[in-house]
Design brief:
Blueprint (H helix, E strand, L loop, with lengths): L6 E6 L3 H10 L7 E7 L2 H11 L3 E5 L7 H11 L4 E6 L4 H4 L7 E6 L4 H23 L9 H11 L10 H8 L11 E10 L11 H12 L1 E7 L2 E8 L1 H23 L2 E6 L9 H12 L6 E3 H4 L6 H15 L7 H8 L3 H12 L3 H17 L6 H7 L5 H12 L3 H15 L2
Parallel strand pairs: 1-2, 1-3, 3-4, 4-5, 9-10
Antiparallel strand pairs: 6-8, 6-9, 7-8
């Protein structure tokens, strides 16, 4: 069957025989896919995701080092647009359902047959087609959500003077933005626009539907179109924004690139407490839209000088050096320490250090491990824990991959070199 658009896929499974069979025996193009990589564990799979940015990750739910669910969680933080299909045993099914929030598109129960996987791939292909079409679809402006038309004046005009009278809250309840008089969310304003290859900017009205289809997955939202831009009012509590805002922005940018073939610029205002502050938040995001070359910018990332790109990267390196022994250190936790968004931090690390966060962290841990190996009083297990690894086998795998030798082999070589120097 001729396929115009092949979706890229990475396969991850620690069962060598099954993985090889899936990779070599499935006629991927016949089902609408192109295999771009395979991994025998979660760590390698995560690195392949960062390298290839596939449309689909097909992964076993139980793997060494990083489980399928943990892999799904980490993938969502860096590539939220990726769909994930789980290969799992029957006993894992309830366990697997915990990851429903991580873009799980399919569960395939073992034992598997090549024919069975092929049939499921056809279904997955149809689901991704539908997702992409939803993102492309044009919305009829005249039939748009009435809330959008009623919320627009609150955003574009300054009604702060009406705050004390309670008229704004009453109006917000009437148009469905607020549920009732007890509903007191926080707000932020996101402005999105598309960018053509020639550098010109401007989104069609239909882009509202594309943004809304993603925003609704994570937060309460209302979007409207104005002058080539989509303006989205997002509602939630501070913890909601901390967890989901950067993921939402990433997914919009990734889908615009993959589905529409266009760049996307997003600016997100500070979080504000009242409806009267929404206009100011909108102005803030609009002013930022004309500055900076990043795809995504949170206003909170732009304020202090210490959040500038090169300096921020240096601070990130210093902070990793201080906390690499923490097994739970992640891009999200590091960004919280530095008081910036994960998007901004990840972009700065890639731009100024030339590598991803996960590679930078592994390199720091391996360099520290090599120094500790020189001390014969430390057992390999002790070194693993001091370098942020709770699993000694995971540590040994990473060490051999990075250094070319196992920890024990390198220690023996170091001891032999030291002995020859003493002669």
């Amino acid at each position: 069957m001729a396929v115009k658009n092949l979706y890229t896929v990475v396969v991850a499974d620690d069962e060598d025989e099954l993985r090889e069979a899936v990779c070599t025996m499935i006629p991927w193009e016949e089902y609408g896919f192109c295999l771009v990589g395979s991994a025998s564990n979660g760590l390698d799979a995560l690195q392949l995701v960062e390298k290839h940015e596939p449309d689909l990750l097909l992964t076993d739910i139980r793997m060494p080092f990083i489980s399928g669910i943990e892999l799904a969680r980490q993938v969502r933080e860096v590539r939220p647009a990726i769909n994930i299909a789980f290969l799992s045993g029957y006993d894992d099914f309830e366990y697997a359902k915990q990851a429903i929030q991580y873009n799980i598109i399919s569960y395939m129960l073992k034992p598997l047959t090549i024919e069975g996987i092929g049939a499921e791939l056809r279904i997955i292909r149809q689901k991704i087609d539908a997702q992409f079409e939803l993102f492309r679809q044009a919305s009829k402006v005249e039939g748009a959500d009435m809330r959008a038309a009623m919320v627009m004046p609150l955003v574009l005009d300054d009604y702060a003077h009406m705050e004390e009278s309670g008229q704004i809250e009453t109006y917000a309840q009437q148009c469905g933005l607020l549920r009732d008089e007890k509903d007191r969310p926080y707000y932020t304003v996101m402005v999105s626009t598309l960018q053509e290859e020639d550098g010109s900017r401007g989104a069609p009205p239909s882009f509202v539907a594309s943004v809304d289809s993603l925003a609704g997955k994570y937060l309460r939202s209302v979007s409207f179109f104005t002058s080539g831009r989509v303006v989205t009012v997002l509602l939630g509590n501070p913890s909601d924004f901390e967890e989901y805002l950067h993921i939402l922005a990433d997914e919009i940018v990734q889908m615009a690139s993959r589905v529409l073939g266009k760049g996307c610029r997003i600016r997100v205002s500070h979080i504000v407490r009242t409806l009267g502050e929404i206009h100011g938040a909108y102005r803030e995001a609009m002013e930022a839209l004309g500055h900076g070359d990043g795809r995504i910018q949170f206003i909170s990332d732009l304020a202090p000088a210490v959040k500038g790109g090169n300096l921020l990267c240096k601070r990130a390196i210093d902070t990793i050096s201080q906390h690499y022994m923490d097994a739970n250190l992640s891009l999200v936790s590091l960004s919280a320490m530095l008081d910036v968004s994960p998007n901004h931090l990840s972009a700065c690390i890639k731009k100024y250090a030339g590598e991803t966060f996960i590679n930078m962290l592994i390199r720091k841990r391996m360099e520290a491990a090599k120094e500790l190996l020189a001390n014969p009083d430390f057992k390999i297990q002790d070194i693993a824990q001091r370098c942020g690894y709770t699993d000694q086998h995971y540590f040994s795998y990473c060490f051999k991959k990075y250094c070319g030798k196992s920890p024990n082999a390198l220690r023996r070589r170091m001891e032999a070199e030291k002995g020859s120097e003493g002669k």
